[in-house]
Amino acid sequence: MYIVGVDLGGTFFKVGLVEAESGRILRKVERETLVAEGGERVVSRMAEAILEIAQGYDVQGVGVGSPGSIDHDSGIVRFSPNFPDWNDFPLGPMLGKFTGLKVYVENDANAFVLGEKWFGAGKGYEHIVALTLGTGVGGGVISHGVLITGKNGIGAELGHVIIEPNGPLCGCGNYGCLEALASATAIKRMALEGQKKFPESLIFKKSSVDAKAVFDSAREGDALALNIVERVVNALAVGVSNFIHVFNPEIVVIGGGVSRAGDILFKPLREKVEHLVMPSFKGTYQIVQSPLVEEAGILGAASVALQFGKI
User: Fold this and answer.
1) pTM for the full model?
2) How many CB atoms lie within 10 A of CB 41?
3) Domain check: are 136 and 231 in the same one?
4) N or C: which end of the chain has fewer CB within 10 A?
């Protein structure tokens, strides 16, 4: 059985043909989104890419992971910061009309947790919390095998729980959100803020100032980098321990570019969370790195069709 996953971003979109049973991506294309051309043209180009990679295969449905507030039942994008003119935009119905296929649309962070459930570290689990640490911090929750989205389908904004009430300004307008402390954007900001005090930091001798440079420098014992990593780990530990208390997951999956830091992130995170959770929660969960890496977007989107299309 074959399904198509569409990972929609503000700059690029990726389309993959997925073998549902194995999760193998058989074909994949990436195109520029070109938001300025208008919504209908964007969807038309998505449809062209879908039909191109689906040619010769009996595709059962299309799943789309889209940024923004999504009305899953209707496939309408209510609001998306990456697509300023997409207010109440009929992404699902329009894409279905252009392709002749059944289309299912979900928020990209929710798609991420579904991807983990169907193809990743969450396979075989009924209670999952997933965080993706990239430009921002996205999150999704599955409880009793059901995706938790709330009344309007826009719940589980895990990246916007407030960790430091008087902390740094977040893109959402609040202060001290998890996203403002543990995203790749936040890590870069903290590095640049520390440059005046630590001008000789190894971070600034790397090819670019980014999250990877910070973690690499921390491994080399750099003082600024170690301070930043400690702050990131502390923020994540507070957030994750709260999610464990609220949702009682079997597994917490962390993905996105920041997760590639590996043990320097995960080892202290596990230790701090273990210290923070109530005694009754100890031993009830595990914290793991997502195995999906580059394919998380496409496989997550494909999982939307599997989850809701009953394919």
Assistant:
1) 0.91
2) 12
3) yes
4) N
**Structure confidence by residue, pLDDT tens digits, 169-202:** 998 889 999 999 999 999 999 999 999 999 999 9
Order across the sheet with 146-147: list the strands: 146-147, 137-143, 128-133, 251-255, 286-289
The token pair that represents 167 in the structure block: 């902390």
CATH for 253: 3.30.420.40
Which secondary structure element, helix H or strand E, spans residue 197, and what is its range? none
Please state, as a whole number, how many other Cβ atoms lie within 10 Å of the Cβ of residue 147: 24
Tally of domains in the chain: 2
Produce one character per residue of 3-17: b if its CB has 16 or more CB atoms within 10 Å, e if not: bbbbbbbeeebbbbb
- Which one-letter DSSP state was computed for residue 227? H
Alpha carbons 250 and 54: distance in angstroms, whole number? 36
pLDDT digits (tens, 9 = 90+) for 91-131: 999 999 999 999 999 999 999 999 999 999 999 999 999 99
pLDDT for 7: 95
| Max Cα distance, the chain (Å) | 60
Task: Give the span between the Cα atoms of 14 and 250, in whole angstroms.
Answer: 31
Could you tell me if 103 and 23 lie in one domain? yes
